[in-house]
């Protein structure tokens, strides 16, 4: 079915162009016509065939980013478990590298729209739940491997880690010098070290 | 100078209406004409006299929120110091109550635009720096009062606390049931307790 394959590929290609538009100038500064032009379509109608409006395009952009992030997490944690796997997971989510910085910009644009759109909120919530379960899994492995290697309250630790990673999407964007990639990694390392020493709190 | 007072009051009143519009339906779903109507102005020109465009209005809305938050922090920390003051500070920032939830929505809308506007980013950065300094001050007081009452690396702890609080703006919006007000308070309490027991990490 060559036409279906072509449709999916073209869809991905539009989304990747959209990521760049969001990263360069913000989605609110680009019309569907502008994005169509960036994609190389003379008529914006072609874009509308794939995505009826900006919200649909932003939703698809965010979904593909979550999917790609999860694929990278799966790749980078192959053969790893416990805290080693958890460290790799965090590195694919925090905006400490060029790729994850672009992804973070799309996420922030998406979150802004999710505020007034329940369907978008659900997608954002699903991504958080998925990561929450993965982090809890890593913490359970850490405990199996080292009986003290797990925080007193894994669920609370997971929330703290997730909130810190989401917060980095904001602080690294507002202040990329203070919240540099190395600073972000150090913050995550410090949090993970608390698991190793068995947080008594 | 009655005219000046009137100008400032009307400006605040426009901003407060804008907060409500952002909280109810998102700023991207409201035109300047819509906001003017919500303010009770028949002609959108009156609004433009105060704010030339949505970005200017959003900037002013965010600035007033930071100012009000800081006023509340000043009030709620009167006569307090150290961790007691720090706890009060956090409670005015996290979106655990109705008022701070509305403020968080304005902040998320603001952050989205700040991504492609250096002037907005600077304002966001200033708010973070201000809170960072206040938190460091509380931690220094905690150490003076109890020599062990301070984390090994106060600067890193401050970043962790700030990132968690910014992250809560996102997670509580996406999943208000999982990240309820009481859950948010518990998260902050757990972090502050680590200071009391002198975080060994």
Automatic annotation (TrEMBL), chains A, B:
* Domain BetI-type transcriptional repressor C-terminal as annotated: residue spans: 85-196
User: What keywords is this UniProt entry annotated with?
Assistant: DNA-binding, Repressor, Transcription, Transcription regulation
Organism superkingdom: Bacteria
HTH tetR-type domain boundaries = 14-60
MF GO annotations: DNA-binding transcription factor activity; transcription cis-regulatory region binding
Against InterPro entries, the record matches this protein to: BetI_C, Homeodomain-like_sf, HTH-type_TetR-like_transc_reg, HTH_TetR, Tet_transcr_reg_TetR-rel_C_sf
Tell whether RNA-binding is among the UniProt keywords. no
This protein's name: TetR family transcriptional regulator
Species: Arthrobacter livingstonensis
């Amino acid at each position: 079915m060559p036409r279906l394959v072509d449709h999916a590929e073209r869809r991905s290609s539009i989304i990747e162009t959209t990521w760049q538009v969001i990263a360069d100038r913000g989605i609110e500064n680009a019309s569907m016509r502008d994005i169509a032009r960036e994609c190389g379509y003379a008529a914006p109608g072609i874009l509308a065939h794939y995505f009826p409006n900006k919200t649909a395009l932003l939703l698809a952009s965010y979904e593909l980013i979550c999917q790609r992030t999860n694929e990278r997490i799966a790749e980078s944690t192959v053969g790893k478990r416990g805290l080693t796997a958890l460290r790799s997971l965090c590195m694919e989510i925090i905006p400490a590298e060029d790729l994850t910085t672009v992804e973070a910009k799309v996420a922030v644009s998406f979150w802004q729209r999710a505020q007034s759109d329940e369907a978008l909120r659900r997608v954002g919530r699903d991504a958080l739940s998925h990561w929450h379960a993965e982090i809890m899994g890593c913490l359970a492995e850490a405990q199996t491997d080292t009986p003290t290697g797990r925080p007193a309250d894994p669920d609370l630790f997971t929330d703290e880690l997730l909130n810190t990673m989401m917060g980095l999407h904001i602080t690294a964007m507002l202040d990329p010098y203070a919240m540099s990639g190395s600073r972000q990694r150090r913050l995550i390392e410090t949090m993970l070290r608390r698991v190793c020493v068995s947080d008594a709190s």
